[in-house]
Amino acid sequence: MARRKTAILISGRGSNMTALLDAAESPDYPADIVLVVSNRPNAAGLTAATERGIATLAIDHASYDGREAFEEELDAALKKAGVDLICLAGFMRLLTDSFVKRWQDRLINIHPSLLPAFKGMDTHARVLAAGVKITGCSVHYVREEMDSGPIIAQAAVPVLDSDDEESLSARVLEAEHRLYPMALALVASGRARAVGGRVVIEKGPKDGFAPLISPPLETADDQA
Ligand code: GRF
To answer: What whole-number distance in Å separates Cα of residue 202 and Cα of residue 133?
Structure first.
């Protein structure tokens, strides 16, 4: 099967981008990352992608008059690169409804919580303040409302009594780096399909349904 041409949109350090690029190095991986775009020209992720020989582009949102003009430029770049799928990976710009509709079911995002809990910014601080014992990350199709689209995959991690924002975000990030490549593979291979508000996953030969807990709960104390 032809690999789906994929773009990654970033705004910052791009550690999820790196996880996706690592996965896509395997010729069997169903997505081919053909372009990395940042709306911030100084994003560290852009340098990391360039160093790996990936085509990159900075489209500085600040030099455009409004979201539509910025997205017109973005759309043109995606079209030029023949992009068919988009991964948002720490992309800190809200996209317009019309962009989201145009890319419906070909636009996915990673969010550092177990959606639909803790949508939006400052996720880990709110998780800690709420006193929940399990958090995690979610990869979902993007819909008009922020962090609300059908969920493709999730990973759970424990919240420890000793956690602060830094330790919790590091644990969740580690899970993100394992989850996003898996979720993109499901989408790019056509095994994940949005049906109504849910995602149906066609079972593959190696799939188990064990919950994804990272790190395993029995080692959680070691990290305290
Ligand atoms: C991640 O926590 C992601 O879930 C959120 O923004 C962060 C981006 O980190 N949307 P990175 O740039 O991928 O390192």
So the answer is: 31
Average pLDDT, the chain: 91
pTM over 0.70: yes
3-class DSSP state for residue 191?
coil
Active-site annotation holds for 140: no
Of 97, 112, 192, 181, whose CA–CA distance to 147 is shortest?
A: 112
Q: What phi, psi does 216 have (nearest 5°)?
A: -55, 145
Test site for ligand 1: of 110, 122, 172, most ligand atoms within 8 A of the Cβ: 110
Q: Is the dihedral of CA 207, 213, 217, 218 positive or negative?
A: positive
Beta-carbon neighbour count of residue 223 at 10 Å?
Answer: 13
- Kind of pairing, strands 85-88 and 4-10? parallel
Contact 17, 89 (CB under 8 A): yes
CA–CA–CA angle 114, 220, 169 (5° rounding):
45
Residues 37, 35: Cα–Cα separation, whole Å: 6
Q: Rounded to whole angstroms, how far apart are CA atoms 191 and 186?
A: 5
Cβ 176 under 6 angstroms from ligand 1? yes
Q: What is the SS3 assignment for 197? A: coil
Q: Is the CB of 135 under 6 A from ligand 1?
A: no
| Whole-number pLDDT of residue 1 | 76
